[in-house]
Write a structure and sequence with these properties.
By secondary structure, this protein is α/β, with parallel strands linked by helices. 43% of the residues lie in helices and 13% in strands. It has two domains: 217 residues, 3-Layer(aba) Sandwich (D-Maltodextrin-Binding Protein, domain 2), CATH 3.40.190; 215 residues, Periplasmic binding protein-like II (D-Maltodextrin-Binding Protein, domain 2), CATH 3.40.190. It has 20 helices and 17 strands. The longest helix has 21 residues.
């Protein structure tokens, strides 16, 4: 459902619910999208023109593609480098023009461009969680027709199964989106501090708590430096704790949530407890603030672990070197900063989900505004090149993103890349144990509710207080979903 509808009703006081994350200015659109298993009897996209073929291959001549990307952090430089490589390799055939849109504005801005036909992009690159809204508003189209006519096959069997499963967006048999990568919060650690305490990284929650207690008791070191007010913490790390303890986010048949019931309540309360184990009961164990103190501790070698973002790797390394005697990058990497993941960090008891990581992924999708079959085929050519070329995957990994393509991750060029080998594969031990929010149009409201749960419970002292907060968030979110 359109979040602008939510906002309008909230402003009219028809409901006393909080609609955080509402993006104004969207057209209401053509109505509800599919439920799982739906088919398409009346396509909302059209195709014109004919392909110029040379045997089984299409011939491209000066095809211009506008790409709207949600990438706009430190990783944008690496992304633009990859685009420049493509434009050089396909000079005179296909060219990509990039426009970067801030993630907080991406959905409303790009949706409006497409629905109002106001300079819409041809290709979008956005987070997996947003794509269900795009297909519900019929603003994107599938790749299938272009692949069939051009012979450019993008097989979902060539991508990590736990990412590829989202590609149909609920329309079985269609490829509405193509996985690119995955990302979440990751762990940087100080090799020298770790060496003082045995040199072994913890493999589960119990070992992590034991190590943190040992470090805290030994010297003036913060075992874990993390910023829990950063938007990524409740969105990625808190949800990782929920998933690792066996929690389900929502019912895929109707999108409602059941967090305060049965095993789900246990998963949520265990997730909260797993973080309190590291902070609440022994506050000296972690930096628990909203400022830059967490990173400052790590750069000053006053923290063993730092919970950060993978695309900030280069700036972290450079800052560490500058603050510690102008160390070279090689010296920092070889002697000081290592990388590991939050896999197995939060499960209170080992279970089938203990090693899972929750985060987000980038996907490509075609705007419904594209009609010319030559442009659609050119988009397929670019998407396959970007997602299945080993050298591109390695460059994108260096910008902080693990490739979602098994063609890339199984290639020697990718595996032998120094950054991939030393950091990316440590940040993400198994791409097939990675979870995204999935195909729900209520992603923004769900994340808002999850954030409220974490913000409300992080300073609680009893299980009853936790359950009350979880129940309140569940009631509010289900009120939004069932109302519409």
């Amino acid at each position: 459902m359109k979040k602008t509808i939510f906002c309008a009703i909230a402003l009219a006081s028809a409901m006393t619910l909080a609609f955080a994350g509402c993006g104004g200015g969207k057209d209401p659109g053509p109505g509800p999208g599919p439920k799982p298993g739906d088919t398409i009897s009346n396509p909302w996209w059209t195709t014109t023109g004919e392909l110029d073929m040379d045997g089984d291959s299409p011939v491209f001549e000066d095809v211009e593609i506008t790409l709207s990307t949600i990438v706009n952090g430190e990783d944008l430089a690496g992304f633009n480098q990859i685009i420049a490589q493509f434009n050089n390799a396909y000079r005179g055939k296909i060219s990509i023009e990039v426009n970067s849109v801030n993630q907080n504005d991406y959905e409303s801005t790009v949706m409006s461009q497409i629905t109002q036909n106001n300079n819409p992009p041809d290709l979008i690159m956005t987070h997996q969680k947003m794509l269900k809204s795009f297909v519900e508003q019929k603003t994107i189209q599938p790749f299938d027709e272009a692949m069939e006519q051009s012979g450019i096959e993008i097989s979902l069997s060539d991508y990590a199964a736990d990412l590829a499963k989202y590609a149909s967006l609920g329309y079985d048999g269609y490829t509405f989106s193509v996985p690119i990568d995955a990302q979440c919060q990751v762990i940087y650690y100080n090799k020298q501090i770790l060496a003082k305490y045995g040199g072994e990284l913890p493999t589960n929650h119990e070992e992590l708590v034991e190590l943190c207690n040992t470090v805290a008791a030994g010297e003036n070191i913060v075992p874990i430096a993390w910023n829990t007010s950063l938007e990524f913490f409740p969105m990625y790390t808190f949800l990782t704790a929920v998933i690792q303890n066996g929690g389900d986010l929502y019912d895929e048949s109707d999108y409602t949530v059941h967090w305060s019931e049965g095993d789900n309540l246990t998963a949520f309360t265990n997730a909260i407890k797993s973080i309190r184990d590291l902070v609440k009961h022994t506050p000296q164990l972690a930096r628990w603030d909203a400022g830059a103190g967490a990173l400052s501790d790590f750069l000053a070698q006053k923290a063993l672990f730092f919970l950060g973002m993978p695309w900030n790797f280069n700036s972290i390394v450079e800052s560490f070197g500058a603050q510690n005697g102008n160390l070279s990058k090689d010296a920092v990497l070889s002697g000081y900063i290592g990388g590991t993941s939050i896999s197995n960090w939060f499960a209170l008891e080992e279970n089938e989900n203990s090693d899972k990581i929750f985060g987000d992924a980038h996907f490509f999708a075609i705007s419904k505004s594209v009609r010319d079959i030559n442009k659609k085929a050119a988009i397929c050519e670019f998407v396959k090149w970007f997602t299945q070329t080993a050298s591109v995957g390695a460059l994108w990994a260096e910008a902080g993103h693990i490739s979602g393509s098994t063609v890339v991750t199984n290639s020697d060029e990718y595996i032998e890349n120094e950054f991939v080998n030393d950091y990316i594969t440590h940040f993400y031990p198994d791409i097939n144990r990675f979870e995204c929010i999935g195909n729900t149009p209520y992603h923004a409201d769900l994340i808002s509710s999850i954030t409220k749960i974490f913000a409300t419970t992080k300073n609680n002292t009893t299980a009853e207080q936790d359950k009350s907060a979880i129940t309140a968030a569940q009631t509010e979110l289900n009120g939004i979903i069932t109302f519409f």
